[in-house]
Automatic annotation (TrEMBL):
Belongs to the citrate synthase family. It holds the Pfam family Citrate_synt. GO terms for cellular component: cytoplasm. GO terms for molecular function: citrate synthase activity. SUPFAM superfamilies: Citrate synthase. The active site is at H279, D337. This is Citrate synthase. Pathway: Carbohydrate metabolism; tricarboxylic acid cycle; isocitrate from oxaloacetate: step 1/2. It comes from Hasllibacter halocynthiae.
């Protein structure tokens, strides 16, 4: 590792690194990834152990404060987060200003940005107490905001959070309850939802997290920074992978068409790829996908796939690809997005909710990285350089002479 900033200060060292593939922008103690070995650690703890033994809110505490909480610390943390889940009534009114068929992700970007206006008593980043309140507000209110965005997009009344429900149960309730019946999800579904949140909680300096850090480097308020992160996540190359995987399953339609799509994926003259297979970072296996597959199996066992052709295609496609030497030789396994898409579809979520749910999960990662950055005395305003490739200096020509 070369500290270019020191070399730059000494002379004229300059690097060109599109996509920042070999440039670290910060030091961090939150998440470690070894893609070759299939390792993902949060504060040193393997993601498999956290997904197995922990809850999402416990992982939130770990990411935010660096250590697993004691029982008393966890109880207080859960209590504090739960008691911030309500939105100010004016935020519900604000939501009603959107077009009735607005995509949930568009509503979320707007609502989180608007938190700077509704909760401006926690926007002073120089005040540690305000920083803490802002962190709690974002983690607690994000599921409520996502559920409000969903309900609004389908024209149903908003459902308020309930303080006696855990984080994942509350979210599922707020999405699927109707005024006539207070829907209570099966604990297996709540657990699967909690795992989806846990497995997406942080992934070090990905595009949206880097966006949050860059926005924050100017001293912008926390809600504006997280809104910037959500906007970045919205892009199909980042948050849209499970949606793309599900849409491909819909396109395949029936299991008998799977061989045709497998053949297309192997054909080097066809740009088609099996969505939800392979990973840029994890070259052996994605440790999150292993846990997510287990959850997907539990959910499908509970709900059955007989009436759902998409889930039948998913099951058959997974088997066909795992048995095919093309995919085995290239280590192209189903990734976390393949399984999360299946689970969310089985639960009844439309694909338009997949990225909002990713945003709910990732909020704690963004907030933890934002807090870490504010505490780092070495951080300065983010200001990448450029390689200027344009015209050299030339004289202005009057418009009638051009
Ligand atoms: N279907 C068919 N072939 C594939 C696939 C796929 N999904 N993914 C990779 N390959 C093949 C490539 O054609 C290449 O074959 P070759 O060696 O014969 O030329 C080989 O596997 C290696 O592929 P690369 O493109 O070098 O792998 P890379 O690391 O660049 O790509 C990526 C990773 C982008 C994720 C790729 O696997 C892909 O496009 N997958 C489908 C989209 C997807 O699921 N994306 C979400 C990933 S999860 C996440 O980002 C959170």
């Amino acid at each position: 590792v070369i500290d270019i900033s020191k070399l730059y200060a000494q002379g004229d060292v300059f690097t060109y690194d599109p996509g920042f593939t070999s440039t670290a922008s910060c030091e961090s103690t939150i998440t470690y990834i070894d893609g070759e070995e299939g390792v993902l650690l949060h504060r040193g703890y393997p993601i498999q152990q956290l997904a197995e033994k922990s809850s999402y809110l416990e992982v939130c505490y770990l990411l935010l404060y660096g250590d697993l909480p004691t029982a008393a610390e966890l109880e207080k943390f859960v209590h504090d987060v739960t008691h911030h889940t309500m939105l100010h009534e004016q935020m519900y009114n604000f939501t009603r200003g959107f077009r009735r068929d607005a995509p949930p992700m568009a509503i979320m970007v707007g609502m989180v940005g608007a938190m700077s206006a509704f909760y401006h008593d926690s926007t002073d980043i120089t005040d540690p107490w305000q920083r803490e309140v802002a962190a709690f507000r974002m983690i607690a209110k994000m599921p409520t905001i996502a559920a409000v965005a969903y309900k609004y997009s389908i024209g149903q009344p908003f459902v308020y959070p309930r303080n006696d429900c855990d984080y994942a149960t509350n979210f599922l309730r707020m999405c699927f309850s109707l005024p006539a019946e207070d829907y209570m999800p099966n604990p297996i579904l709540s657990r699967a939802m909690d795992r989806i949140f846990t497995l997406h909680a942080d992934h070090e300096q990905n595009a949206s997290t880097s966006t949050v850090r860059l926005a924050s480097s100017s001293g912008a308020n926390p809600f504006a920074c997280i809104a910037a992160g959500i906007a970045c996540l919205w892009g199909p190359a980042h948050g849209g992978a499970n949606k793309a995987a599900l849409e491909m399953l819909e396109e395949i339609g029936t299991p008998d068409r799977i061989p045709e799509y497998i053949a297309r994926a192997k054909d080097k003259d066809d740009p088609f790829r099996l969505m939800g297979f392979g990973h840029r970072v994890y070259k052996n296996f994605d440790p999150r996908a292993v846990v997510m597959k287990q959850s997907a199996d539990e959910v499908l066992d509970l709900l059955g796939i007989e009436d759902n052709p998409i889930l039948q295609v998913a099951k058959e496609l997974e088997k066909a690809a795992l048995d095919d030497p093309y995919f085995a030789d290239r280590k192209l396994f189903p990734n976390v997005d393949f399984y999360s898409g299946i689970i969310l579809n089985a639960m009844g979520f439309p694909t338009s909710m997949f990225t909002p749910i990713f945003a709910v999960s990732r909020t704690v990662g963004w907030v933890s990285q934002w807090k870490e950055m504010l505490m780092d005395p070495k951080q300065k305003i983010g200001r990448p350089r450029q390689l200027y490739m344009g015209a050299t200096e030339r004289d202005y020509v009057e418009v009638e002479d051009r």
